Amino acid sequence: PPRLEVRNLYRQYGNRTVVDDVSLSIEPGQVTCLLGPSGCGKSTTLRMIAGVDMQDRGEIYVDGKLICDTVYRVPPERRKIGLMFQDFALFPHMSVADNVAFGLKDSAPKKRLRVEELMEKVGLSWAIDQAPHHLSGGEQQRVALARALAPRPRIMLMDEPFSGLDNRLRDDIRDETLALLKDEDTAVLLVTHEPEEALRMADEIALMRDGRIVQQGSPYNIYNAP
Ligand code: ADP
Ligand code: ADP
After folding, report:
1. Neighbours of 196 (CB within 10 A)
2. Beta bridge partners of residue 206, listed in sequence order
3. Residues lining ligand 1, judged by CB closer than 6 Å?
4. Which helix (H) or strand (E) holds 59?
5. From CA 125, how far away is CA 113, in angstroms rounded?
6. Residue with CA nearest ligand 1 atom 26
7. What confidence tens digit (pLDDT) does each residue in 143-175 have?
8. I need a surface site. Which of 9, 110, 142, 153 has the fewest CB within 10 A?
9. How many angstroms does the Cα of residue 68 sit away from the middle of ligand 1?
């Protein structure tokens, strides 16, 4: 089965339909970008998949298992879904290691091993016992990625995760992030309003407008369609 499958999702706010019959499926190891202008319903779609907002209609499956429909609902913390948002900052009063271990429920030595493994993968072993404010913006972003990956999520939801970074850093961090996500075997749904970001990151692009997915395919197919 697909890693993530969303079927016929609807969401209204008041009498406005902001997500209108959205269906998506993402295979293991794949990155799908939800691309569209501000206000078209991308974040609302992501929030429903994360379980912090509730759809009016439709179903969500992870690895073929129903996690949410209009009557049944697995709580967010049990969905095996990781989150990375633009303003999802590190906890400033915790060390880097405690930040990365935050979502882990293992014994202290097992937590430490996982934290060390991830800090090595993001190239920040030296920073493990630092306070977050000693790190640069790009380094903090890498720690946030390590924190999101620590509990081994099946799916990573990313909402404009790179928009707080300088242009100079962004391409490198995008590439490193992709490599690490593939290495950890996590499927990704990434929201962006920048076509350039979708082209760089996506295996599959879903173009969204006014709550609907209007076109879906590989970057090549999306940009070369008649
Ligand atoms: P995007 O992520 O594509 O910018 P959003 O999903 O954030 O779009 O928003 C889609 C539309 O729904 C926007 O018009 C937004 O103002 C509206 N909206 C989002 N969240 C709420 C909410 N909690 N209550 C009412 N309207 C909302
Ligand atoms: P972004 O698109 O930058 O991710 P959103 O537009 O989704 O941010 O808004 C962030 C928060 O504000 C969300 O919790 C959302 O529910 C709320 N929100 C957005 N638009 C509205 C709105 N029109 N009315 C009420 N709440 C809203």
Report:
1. 9
2. 34, 216
3. 13, 18, 36, 38-44
4. strand 57-62
5. 12
6. 13
7. 999 999 999 999 999 999 888 788 888 888 899
8. 110
9. 21
ipTM of this complex:
0.70
Biggest CA pair distance of the chain: 56
Query: In which region does residue 41 sit, left (phi positive, over 0), alpha (psi from -120 to 50) or beta (all else)?
Result: left
Task: Classify burial at 136, counting beta carbons within 10 Å of its beta carbon; exposed 0-12, middle 13-18, buried 19 or more.
Answer: exposed
What does each C-alpha distance from 74 to 50, 163, 170, 192 come to in angstroms? 10, 30, 34, 26
Distances (CA, A) of 146 to 99, 128, 172, 176, 222: 9, 11, 16, 12, 31
CA distance 12 to 139: 38
**What is the rounded distance in angstroms from the CA atom of residue 149 to the CA atom of residue 199?**
23
The pLDDT tens digits for 200-211 are 899 999 999 999
Instruction: Tell me how far the alpha carbon of residue 55 lies from the centroid of ligand 1, in angstroms.
Output: 13
Q: State the pTM of this model.
A: 0.88
